[in-house]
Amino acid sequence: MQTVPKANRIHIAIFGKRNAGKSSLINALTKQSVALVSDIAGTTTDPVYKAMEILPLGPVMIIDTAGLDDEGTLGKLRIEKTLEVLNKTDLAIIVIDGTGGVSTFDREIVNEVKKRKIPVVGVINKIDHLKTSEKLVQQSEETLQIDVVGVSTVTGHGIELLKGLMIKNAPQDWEEKAIVGDLINAKDHIVLVVPIDNAAPKGRLILPQVQVIRDILDYEGMCSIVKETELEEFLNRLKQKPFMVITDSQAFAKVAAITPLDIHLTSFSMLFARYKGDLNSYLKGVKAIGSLVPGDKVLIAEGCTHHRQSDDIGTVKIPRWLNEKVGGSLDYEWASGGGFPKDLTKYKLIIHCGACMLNRREVLYRLSNAGEEKIPVINYGILIAYLNGILYRTLAPFPEANALLKKIKKEN
C-alpha cells in the first residue's frame, strides 16, 4: 500500500473552519497522530498529505487543509492554498463544528464543491459535547443537501459510519484505468525502449516506465526492455515480431526509423496523456503549432520537480525543436509540480508533460481551465511525434484519436 504512487490514489480532502476538528478527524481515520492538533486556531497552515488505505476503496491520499475562516494577509494566502486543493480532490469531506452548527463558510465550500461536481460528505464533529446530535445531523443534511454523519474524534463514535459514507460517495470511476492493457491481448509481446542517459535516474527506472511494465503484466502481456542503441539488434534477434514498441518520446525519431511499419509504435508520454487526461483534447494543440509565430508566449508545464540536466527535455530540447519549426524564438514560461498559472489568456499554446505525478482530476482541471479560455494544450509525446512527422503512426494504437486528427487536418 505504501508503494502505490501518490498520483494513483483517490484524493480525499478535508475542509472546514479553524478548530472544527479537521486534523483530529484525520488522526481518527488513520488511527495515528498524523496531523498536528492544538486548541489554537489556525494550527494547520499548509495542506498536509497522508497516504492510507480505506477498504474497499484501497489506497487513498488524505489531505488536511487550513481553516476557511483564516484571517489576515497570511490567512488569505492559506485560504487560496486550501481552495487550490479542490483542483485535485476526488472526494471532499466538510467538517462542521457541532457546537456552532452549519456556518456561512460551510455553505460556501459545499456550494463550490458541488459546482465542481466533486462528491462530498458532511461531518458534524464534537457530538460528544451535544445532547441531541441526531437533530443537528438531520438539519445539516436538509440545509446542505449532502450526506452527513455525526462523529466524535475523541471517542471514535461515528468514524466507521463516516468511512461507509466515504465509500458510498466516492467517484464511481475511482478504479484505475488501464495504461496500455486495454490495447493489447494476452501473450502479446511489447518492447519498451528506455534510454539511459544523463537524465536517467541512477539505479532505477522512472515511474511511467515501471507503471507500464506492471500494467502489461496485469493484462497477461509479455515485455522486454532495451535501450534505443540496442533496439535494432534486438528486433533482428526475435523470431516473431512484437505487437508494439513503446519508447521515451525523446527517442521517437531514432526508434521510428528502426521499428518496422507493421509494428505499433507509441510513447510513454502519449499513453499517459490518455491515462491521466484526455488524449483527444491534446490533439487540438496540433492545430495551434501551425499558427505560432516568433515571440508568441508558450507555457511548458511539468507535473514534477526534478534536477535539470544540461539537455533537459522541458527547458532545452522542446524549446529548441519548436523554435526550429516556427523559424524563430518563442517566449517560454515554465510551471512545475503543483504550480499552474491562474491566468492562461496570455499563452498561445500550453505544452504539458505526461503528468505521471499528478492525479487525473488535477490534469482534467487544467485542461478544463485551458478549454474555457480557448487556449490549446498539447502533450510532450504528441508534440515530439508531430515535429518528427510520425504523429499518425504513433496514434495508430488509438483509433478514435487518429480519426480526430484526420478531422482536424481536414478542417485546416
TrEMBL record:
Gene Ontology MF: a single term: GTP binding
Key words of the record: GTP-binding, Nucleotide-binding
PANTHER family (UniProt xref): TRANSLATION INITIATION FACTOR IF-2 (PTHR42714:SF6), TRNA MODIFICATION GTPASE GTPBP3 (PTHR42714)
Domain of life: Bacteria
The G domain, residue ranges: 11-126
Residues of the Hydrogen maturase F dimerization domain: 179-277
Protein name: [FeFe] hydrogenase H-cluster maturation GTPase HydF
GO cellular component: cytoplasm
Annotated ranges, domain Hydrogen maturase F tetramerization: 282-397
Signal peptide: none
One Pfam family, short name: HydF_tetramer
Gene3D superfamilies for this protein: 3.40.50.11410, 3.40.50.11420, P-loop containing nucleotide triphosphate hydrolases
This protein's encoding gene: hydF
Gene Ontology biological process terms, A to Z: tRNA methylation; tRNA wobble uridine modification
Regions crossing the membrane: none
